[in-house]
Write a structure and sequence with these properties.
Layout lengths: L3 H32 L6 H11 L4 H23 L8 H39 L2 H7 L4 H38 L5 H11 L2 H27 L4 H32 L2
Helix pairs in contact: 1-6, 2-6, 3-4, 3-6, 4-6, 4-7, 4-8, 4-9, 6-7, 6-8, 8-9
Length: about 260
């Protein structure tokens, strides 16, 4: 094997990655343009709100409450080594609002919603329902992608806000019920420690993560291969891409809001 062979492999991989990034970018630009231009399909939008928002509340709530409780226990246990147990309410609040709340909600949405969107659209492609939409002069991007993207952009920040509150409540229950904290003092420390920038960053992350989750589901669904294997690959790829992009976006947004 010559020296050029591994270099050629690296080059092909880099070109394939750049081509994929270009395709996703063009798809995202097209989807956003369809969001802001008529016609609008209100029924599809309301159904997407229900599927992404309301039906995601149970998994978001359970994830947040257990995470908040576990975070309180961990901080108390770690703080006890340095006689710093009193910082539990402050660290739970900032940890949930800045990082854990948005990221966990984003990953839960990627697991639940992104996979569902990808599987649904990929199945429509396999069964030629998307071709039927084109035959009926209905643009697939307008009918399938735009309502889901708009719904995710609007409702995921609300889910993040709910997750933040429930996570802090989980820490409050554990701290006051098991760790001996005074309830009123715990709530006061939580409210006093949080700043408006923390809340704004959490909601911005929710909006970004919702957009990523919806776009990845729609993109992989629209570009899936034929047959059951194509649907399976589209579903798996959409969740993997959404999870990685959510974590990368979290790093970038955190750097924008809290860089020194």
């Amino acid at each position: 094997m010559s020296l050029a062979t591994p270099l050629a492999l690296i080059g092909r991989s880099a070109l394939a990655l750049l081509a994929a990034i270009g395709r996703v970018t063009l798809f995202a630009g097209s989807a956003i343009s369809h969001v802001v231009r008529p016609p609008f399909y209100g029924r599809e939008f309301l159904n997407a709100l229900l599927q992404i928002g309301w039906l995601s509340l149970p998994v978001v709530g359970l994830t947040a409450v257990f995470t908040g409780g576990a975070l309180a226990l961990q901080i108390y246990s770690g703080g006890a080594r340095f006689n710093a147990e009193a910082v539990v309410p402050q660290i739970v609040a900032i940890g949930m609002v800045r990082e854990l709340g948005p990221v966990l909600v984003g990953l839960m949405i990627a697991a639940r919603v992104t996979s569902s969107i990808a599987a649904e659209i990929a199945t429509m492609k396999v069964t030629e329902q998307i071709d039927a939409l084109v035959t009926l002069s209905t643009h697939p991007m307008k009918y399938l992608v735009a309502p889901r993207l708009l719904a995710a952009l609007l409702v995921v920040p609300l889910l993040v806000a709910v997750g933040d509150v429930i996570g802090i409540f989980g820490g409050y229950v554990v701290a006051t019920g098991s760790l001996g904290f005074n309830a009123a003092a715990y709530l006061k420390n939580t409210v006093d420690f949080l700043e408006p920038l923390d809340i704004v960053s959490s909601l911005v992350k929710g909006c970004a993560f919702g957009g990523i989750a919806a776009l990845m589901g729609c993109y992989f669904g629209m570009s899936s291969g034929r047959g059951a294997q194509g649907v399976g690959r589209a579903t798996k790829g959409s969740v993997e891409a959404a999870a990685v992009l959510i974590l990368a976006a979290n790093f970038l947004i955190t750097g924008v809001f809290f860089s020194i």
